[in-house]
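Please complete every field before forwarding. Incomplete forms are returned to the sender.

SECTION A: IDENTIFIERS
Entry label: holo-441
Bound molecule: magnesium ion
Molecule representation: SMILES string

SECTION B: INPUTS
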Amino acid sequence: METAKIRIPRVFSPLLRESWRYKFYYGGRAGGKSFGFADSLLMKGRETKIFVACVREIQDSIKDSVHKLLSDRINYYELNDYKVYEDRIDNIITGTRIIFKGLRDQNAQNIKSLEGVDICWIEEAQTITKKSWDVLDPTIRKDGSEIWISMNRKEENDALWKILAANPDERTLVRKVNYYDNPFCPEEIKIQAEKCKERDYDDYCHIWLGEPMAQGDYKLINSQTVREAMEPKMDSSTSPLVIGLDIARAGSDKSVFCFRKGRYCYKLHAVKGFDTVEIADLTTRFIRDHHPQRVFLDLGNSGAGVYDILTHRGYGEIVRGINFGGKAIQSDRYKNKRAEMWDSVNQWLRGDLPVQLPDDEELFDELCAIERVKVAQDQLQLEDKEEFKKRVGRSPDKADALALTFAEPVFDIGRPRLYGNGMVTVEDMFMDNTQRSNSEW
Ligand SMILES: Nc1ncnc2c1ncn2[C@@H]1O[C@H](COP(=O)(O)OP(=O)(O)O)[C@@H](O)[C@H]1O
Ligand SMILES: [Mg+2]
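SECTION C: PREDICTED COMPLEX
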């Protein structure tokens, strides 16, 4: 074995010299975390036989992983004892093996392949969800095994930050490292950091000092307001019922009905695998049983078909088709209808009067996750569904259904008409909402 001259910034020496169950490094861009971890792993793997798993939340292909970084370092140092394969790296002398996994794709079965791991490196740990962590942590169970974590903090509530680093226990090492701690930081990077500092200090703190972004900066909805709305406080309302219906695209997503009367949102009804006719049938049943003043449904995906069926059945007065990408009512303030509806949810949650949401963890996660997109002027634009799905792992079906209940203002018109093909009478239609809407609207 030749003696490569490997130099690792001192701050990373605990990776090789100390034993901790969790080694948690965080900080801003270019702190040397990725290089420091990669070099340390490679060194350790030359000393003794270890089994290493490099994991991240999502790994669509090996290109997303640190495979390339490790093989670059191997080439740079000319570590000929390492052999790089497409999906793993082996040390042919010690028998060390390094593999690469995305946690989100793991099921109970193949996560077992990680049970013999000595060192698990979680890169980009700010994206790890609590759910993934709850599966991973007990899987890394070999005596003396370690979990190495490198993170650029994104927000106050990053799951692993909260679980491990916010109040570290006696088994956890927490170290902050920024570009000025990195003796190898390229001059160009330092210049960029300084420029950023002059231009926008908040950005600098976040990007270069690794401080979490203030919540209001890019999240639309404050999580505290959602928690408060989910605490039970009302069980009825005299406001007219509005139903929002978010319709799945063929495949994985759910179709969700959301029931809201003014400040009282009391029910989410999700169905999976329904076709257009089945959705229309269920909507018809809800109209007949619950007498909504309006049903706002999303015209995207197969929504247009559902809309046609319902209007043919005579519900054209009740059912409104909404185009998420369509023009907002206040088009100077909102990029599209969807942004406007979501902001209505936001205003509703932040209003002076208490509101009620059903206690639903999925709804909570979706509402808190949606991000604004930074665009010129004061127009609000949200990340689109595809981006959201990539980031969060599913689409915000429940929250979109809630948002749809805000598509247009609904007033209690007080003058009943006959809806449906004679299937609904005036009496049963307005049985429970003959009162005019009060201040709840
Ligand atoms: N051990 C090292 N040897 C040489 N260059 C390094 C080393 N560590 C860091 N660097 C330089 O610093 C830059 C930032 O390091 P990196 O590990 O990518 O930081 P982070 O993961 O914290 O964002 C790298 O692109 C590289 O140019
Ligand atoms: Mg990095």
